[in-house]
Amino acid sequence: MIDGKKELEKLLRGNENFVNGTPTAKNMCLETLRKFAFHQEPYAVVLSCSDSRVVPEIIFDCGIGELFVVRVAGITAGPNVIESLEYAVKKLHVPLLILLGHDDCGVMKYAKDTYPEMPQHFQSILKCVYPVLDKKEDITCHNFFAQQHTIWVEDVLMEKSKIIKDAVENGKLYIAKCHFDHSTGRVEEIN
Ligand SMILES: [Zn+2]
Fold first, then answer.
1. Most buried among 59, 70, 166, 184, by the most CB within 10 A?
2. Around ion ligand 1, which residues have CB less than 5 A away?
3. What is the tens place of the pLDDT at every residue in 80-103?
4. CATH number of the domain at 3-22+40-189, please?
5. Ligand 1 centroid to residue 31 C-alpha, Å
6. CA angle, 27 then 88 then 158, to 5°
């Protein structure tokens, strides 16, 4: 099993702790921060939505120094976001990349209502998600849309990022496509 899958299992166990109301994260104090004062060794990079309800460290029961988190509305993979993920892969050598979509995502709802128009605002975000609707115009449920988009983001990363593609093909990086359900608090891997 590649390291990334082991780290995913650990994080999903952490999610179980969160769901069960028994969080165990201890690395949340100044002492931990001081330990990492001049370096960091996260074991996963998480691409998460900016949504205030999706807080990776809390839902995975983690503390300081564990996750390299890139948060952007709708986990939309534009150039700066891709480079931030690449930094974690190439410079910090994380073995796991989690793409964390979620229920009730404002970007998915907005895009579904607006498609195929391109309004004056939020264009760079819409351009990242419209290709999913171009492929499957019959998407009616925005939660299903979010999952389809998460799958699409993996394709985008493999196409646009040589760093990520090489790491996956060399067995150094595992990409986990996940979905967070607000009503249960549970994170599940999707395929
Ligand atoms: Zn969202």
1. 59
2. 49, 51, 105
3. 999 999 999 999 999 999 999 999
4. 3.40.1050.10
5. 33
6. 135
